Give the backbone structure.
Amino acid sequence: MPTPTGEHQGGTDLVPPPREPLRHAVRRRLRSVGRHNGLRHWLSTRGIPVLLGYAALFTGNGFLIGWRRAYDVSIGITSPADTSAPVPAWFLSVAGWLLVPGIVGAVAGYAVSNAITSRRTRPLDELFPEDDDG
């Protein structure tokens, strides 16, 4: 019969292992990022932090100038100068015009490149040999 301290196995109470300290769990998680490659690695090391920064900027502007106006500034419908807080709105506008298309383009480019590479049967050097003529 199980006991509150652990399981009962063959007449011996088994005590559960101690919990891992938070700093060890975080360290283990950060070190395990290296096992991913390609898109998963890029998203976890670069994409998510940038997206969180953009989300924080959008949230801050949403509270300052209103959610609809923050969306309009972010995609370029409304000028940031026409808002009640133009300075943070300019940062949101620049991020909307540079960061978001850059991230989407990087992910799409990587996905297309990965799909092409996985289907290629002959190396590119074999398909396009270099001329030694000059």
Observations:
- The radius of gyration is 26 Å.
